[in-house]
Amino acid sequence: MFKRTGFLTTAFIEKTFGGLSLVSFFLLTVLSFFYYKIPFVLWLVFFASLLICFFIYIARKRLFLYVIGRVFEAFITLFIVASITFVLLRMLPGGPFDQEKTLPPEIQANISAKYHLDKPLYWQYTHYLKGLFRGYLGESYKYTDRNITDILKDSLPVSVQLGVYALVLAFLLGIPLGVFSAQKQDSWKDRAAMIFSISGVSLPSFVMAPIFILIFSFYLGWLQPALWEGPLFYILPAVVLGLRPASVIARLTRSSVLDVISSDFVRTARAKGLDEKKVFYKHILKNAFLPVLTFSAPLIAGILTGSFIIEEIFAIPGLGQHFVNSVTNRDYPLILGALLVYSSLLILSNMIVDLLYAYFDPRIKVS
Amino acid sequence: MKLYRSGLNFQHDSHSRESGNLQKKQKNSNRIGIKGTLVICISFFLPACFVKKQSFYTNHDLKETFRYPILSEPPTLDWSKSTDTTSSLLIQNIMEGLTEYDFSKKHVQLKPALAARWTSTEDKKTWSFFLREDVLWTDGKKLSPNDFISAWERLLNPKTGSEYAYFLFPIKKAQEYNQGLIKDFKEVGVRIGDQGELIVELKKGLFYFPYLLTHPSTFPIRKDIINQKKSLWTSPQNIVTLGPYKLSRWDHDKALILTKNETYYGQKPSIKKVILYIIPDETTIMNLYSGGLLDIARPLLSRDLPFLKKRKDHYKNSSLSLYYYGFNVSADSLKNPKMRQAIAHAISREEIVQLLNRGDKVLKSWIPEGLFAYNPNLGLGFKPKKAKELIKQMGYSDTSKLPKIQIFYNSSTDHKMIAENIQSQLKKNIGLNVELNSQEWKTYLHRLKTKEVELFRLGWLADYPDPDNFMNLMASFSDNNHTGWKNKRFDKLILQAMTTEDGPQRKKLYDQAQKILLEEETAVFPIFTTVSHLLISPRIKNYPLNVMSYILFKNIEIVED
């Protein structure tokens, strides 16, 4: 009986589902990487376990009101983002249908009428907002007959896929490297690791990408130089995209681990005779993770929505290209759509990170 | 797996702190057991339902596949709405029009396509097109002249908002229909004759009218399909076409696949499958070509040309195009034609072309080489002495008193190089101070339209291979004339030449008009005709190289060694 109640504690259920979501995430990543079809069940398991875990966590920490408040704030922020962008776009000189070949005025009038560009600005604005409330982002001016929602549906998953590979690489490489450096502080190993990471930070991706292509696809012939068709195509862009955050994470981890090592509670833990491994994983690493966590929020949003340069160099059909091209095309609805996706992701990841602070450091009270 | 385990331990430990040490061991065994079983279940049962995804683009028989790069996603495959070159390229391969270009002669001619033959009245005002009888759409239906009528109605309908509706403006009442002035399409000069031929009545005689019908916007359309599928009609599963290829797959922003159309009426293409990869970056195209993943590399970066030119797979293709500088004649500094002439005389085109090092052809006249009425003797050449003289005639004894002028161009490396070179040439040759002004493309277009420019750069690529397409550009009624220059004599000559058949008479009219435009009034300064470069894999034969950049895949062949 006693066992049973212990077995069913909320914390335990939360951890079971947390574990399950981790496993399914791992499976999803591996399967998609090796170009397998992903069964729907796996998605279901992943999202369901993640949601359950999330809700139990919130319930356990009594954060419901806080989350509701944050979601409400998020909607206000998105509304402001949409409004300001809408106005700023109209202030840009040149319109979506300006081309080298000037169109006869009657044709211009027909096009303006079709896309409601002849209506007063406030009308267009309220029209857009009305659509937004119904979840309709409008139709692209450039890609006629395509909804913004369709374009985002096609391109966002690709960027997320690439972004997840890059993020996994960034964390799996960055954290151990930082820890390693901190443990061997001031030795040549530390220096070597830090030289590696400083070059990762300072080498821009448009330099790194061609060098990697040259080495790995032309000299060695192991990987494909571009396109998006399977593992051999995924590695280069993921590495190029992931190396920079990996380096930043490594440096952050190193400095915060060194910070925590010299703190009082670590000395206490050691003094009471705790196993060095336990001291390290439980006391040092957990606390040293906080700065990395702070850095993760904008990183995740930025990387998941795609990188223009990487997508251009490797011809990847992701969302990143739309951020730039839609502006040059003055494709107003597409710019707004892409921007809203980015802002929502940024707000969401910030919120999750704020919630996770309390997990990693019990001293922090989220409210 | 090791990582996962350590994660488990970690979670377990943090929990045990809350629940106390006593329960620790009991729970430990319990939890690992359950989680372990879970993991084992997942890892044993799930892989059973995993299937490897099929790759549509890298898994193919190279002997029957042609792989071609396009720089951008085609904005639309709806030929009433498309305006860009990428969409046109695709549409031209899955569709056909009444007529088709014939590049076998010296000047571009026409050959029959969907129209077996066509006739016109003496004054070139009424045209009759007799359709082929054996043309089938991909869904098995026969091509009917009504498909043309519905296509042209749709193109001109103001609700469609088509940008290329003006292609049919020469037709009687077409413009009025597009403006919404008349509501009944029956009033527009298109009808079906007794023998099922398509009869077109024009506003005024136009002897090059059949050339306009090579353009995708004039291709027939299946109204029933569009009504049924609405905006989804261009997707591979819905689209109904009649060209040598049909669209079989379209992954947005990634690639498109065309396959041979078995019901095509003409000679069937020899290549079964064409894959068009969407690759926005020229360097990436080059990488993929070098890696053997593409059969064509195009366009090439001008910085790579010096060494690529020496390769055996390098080809050149000149186009009917024009790169020019226009004078805004309403700007104070450029009001005086003598000033404009002085500038024209002070710039050496050869120097610019050499600087660019792309093998472009110097162009003094307005009509480019390859077109009827091309006359290399027209236009102002490089004569710095004459330029100085003109400056003196204007009353500037001291060149430092000359007004400063501004050059406007849209930001791009090549345009910048040209502008800088012109800046230095003008300073060196006539002591004119020039300021450079670059803008992002749409901002630049906006400035052109509002005439906030002085000296500006622009280009033109032929829509149809007739000198009229170029000469028309500078007429007072042209929407693309950004110079603000208007000349009644010029307009009259152009309009007259429009209805005159190719011959010495027509050439004389164009010579006179060009003289006014370039020598007397100097409203524009043509610089060169662009030559494009590409690499063609040795396994590809009969790749179409022509002045209209009209790329039909149907004649391409693959030779495997």
What is this entry, summarized?
Chain A is mainly alpha-helical and 367 residues long. Chain A has helices spanning 2-7, 10-33, 40-61, 64-91, 105-114, 121-133, 148-183, 188-202, 205-219, 231-261, 264-271, 276-304, 308-313, 320-328, 332-360.
What would your notes on this structure say?
- The complex is a heterodimer of chains A (367) and B (561).
- With 367 residues, chain A is mainly alpha-helical.
- Chain A has two domains: 2-102, no CATH class; 150-360, MetI-like (MetI-like fold, Orthogonal Bundle).
- Chain A is built from 15 helices and no strands.
- In chain A, helix 8 (188-202) packs across helix 10, helix 9 crosses helix 10 (231-261) and helix 10 (231-261) packs across helix 12 (276-304).
- In chain A, 36% of the residues are buried.
- With 561 residues, chain B is of the alpha+beta class.
- A six-stranded mixed sheet of chain B has the order 14-18-13-17-15-16. Chain B has a four-stranded mixed sheet with strand order 1-10-9-8, covered by helices on one side.
- In chain B, helix 10 (337-345) packs antiparallel against helix 12 (384-393), helix 11 (349-356) packs antiparallel against helix 13 and helix 16 (488-498) packs antiparallel against helix 17.
- The radius of gyration of chain B is 30 Å and the shape is globular.
- The relative contact order of chain B is 0.13.
- Mean pLDDT of chain B is 87; it is low at 1-29.
- At the A-B interface, helix 1, helix 2, helix 5, helix 7 and helix 9 of A face helix 1, helix 2, helix 5, helix 8 and helix 14 of B.
